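Attaching the record inline, Q. Sequence:
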Amino acid sequence: MERVLKLFFLFLLLLFIFLPFFSLYHAIKLGRGAEVRRAIPIPYVVPKIQKELKKHGFHDQLRVTLQKGFNDPRFIDSVFNDPRLGLDSLILFPPRVVPRWKGYSFLFTEESIERGRSFLSKNKKELKRVDSVFSVPPSVVVAILKVETDIGYFLGKYYVPNVFYTKYYINRKRGRSVFHLVKQFRIFLELSQKNNWDPLQIKGSWAGAFGWCQFMPFSDKYYAIDWNGDGVVNLFEKEDAMASIANYLFENGWYKKSKPRQLKSLWRYNRSNTYARAVYEYALIISDNKKSHIF
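Structure, as predicted:
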C-alpha cells in the first residue's frame, strides 16, 4: 500500500513539472513559421512564446492580398504599419468559460424588459416611421438592439481589424479557407476610409460585427442605410442602426402575419434558432401583444 502511494505522488509530481512544457510546446507549434505582430496589449501571450514566433511573410501576404482591388493601397499600408494591429490573444487562446448569454435568459429579467419598454416608448415616433417603410414592428427592432448591444450600451471589446487579422492567421495555420475573412476585412477597411474612421479604434464582437446593431462589414455595405439624412451611413448612430435592422429583416424575408417567415428572417440575422425565438418572444413581451402570438 505504501509503495502504491509513493508511485501516485511521484506521478503527480511529474505531471506538475511537465504539464507547463506541453502547453508551451503547443503554443509555439501554433505560431511557428508565420510572422506575428503583437496587438497592444496581448494579455495572455507569454513573452517566451512571442519570441519563438518567426517572421516568414504572413503579415505582408495579408497586406498584399487586401490591397488587390482596393482603391488606395496606401491606406492599407498605414493600417499594417500601425503597431496596434496584431493578434488578439483572447481569440488566439480563448478562455474556456460558459457564455453568460447562453440561452438568452438575461433578456427576460424585469430590468431588461423595463429597459426595452422604456426605449420603445422614447423612440416610438421614429420606430413607427421605420415600420411604415419596412413593415417591421418597433418592438422587433428594439429586441435586436437589446440582445446585440443592450441598446447601444455595450458595443464590444475586440478591435475589429485584429479580429480578422487573428482569424486569418488561425485559418491559414489550420489549412482552412480565408476567402470570406479577407472579403470582410477589405470591406471593413473600405468603410473605414469612406467614413474617415481610425479602423484600429473601432471595437466590435469576436466575429468582427460592430455598431448598435452588430452588422458584419458585408451587411453594413449591402443593408445599412442613412436614415437620419446626414449623408453618412453610421451604425454607431441610433437612427441609422434602427432602420438598418428593419431593412435587413425586410430584405431577408420578413412578412407580416407569417410567423415562419418572420422567424426565418430573424434566423438569418444570427444563424441561430435559439436567437430567433428569444428575440421574437422578447419583442412580444415589450410590445404588450396579449391578443396574439404573432405580429
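Residues 2-95 form one domain. The beta strands are 158-159, 203-204.

More tomorrow.
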